[in-house]
Design goal:
Distance between the termini: 83 Å
Number of strands: 3
Shape: elongated
Low-confidence stretches: none
Number of helices: 1
Radius of gyration: 24 Å
Structural class: alpha+beta
Oligomer: single chain
Strand order of the largest sheet: 1-2-3
Mean pLDDT: 90
Order of helices and strands: EEEH
Strand content: 15-25%
Length: 105
């Protein structure tokens, strides 16, 4: 008895809009320090932190602190594909920012 062949299913592409929910309730955190690392080929880790510099006025050089601490405010983990898009978006946005500032001078 001959086996019945299953018909091959055709995969069609369909565009689906992505809509961001409201970001008004999202807390705004200030960061002046960034540390990026990656684990194998699986993901990138972005750590955002706030560094408050110590007051050194009036201190002798030998009184300067040996280290300062960064207070972490957020850790974001992304795939390599998202990191690539993130870097491109940051570069594009930064170029627009620089161009606008130059025009204002």
């Amino acid at each position: 008895m001959a086996e019945k062949k299953k018909p091959e299913t055709e995969i069609k592409e369909k565009a689906i809009r992505v809509i961001w929910s409201s970001v008004e309730d999202l807390p705004t955190l200030y960061a002046n320090n960034l540390y990026v690392s990656h684990s194998n080929d699986a993901e990138f880790h972005l750590f955002f932190g706030n560094l408050t510099p110590p007051i050194l006025f009036g201190l002798d050089e030998d009184e300067f602190p040996k280290e300062v601490r960064v207070n972490p405010v957020a850790k974001i983990v992304v795939t390599p594909e998202i990191m690539e898009r993130f870097v491109k978006a940051m570069n594009d946005n930064y170029e627009k920012f620089k161009n606008k500032r130059e025009e204002e001078k």
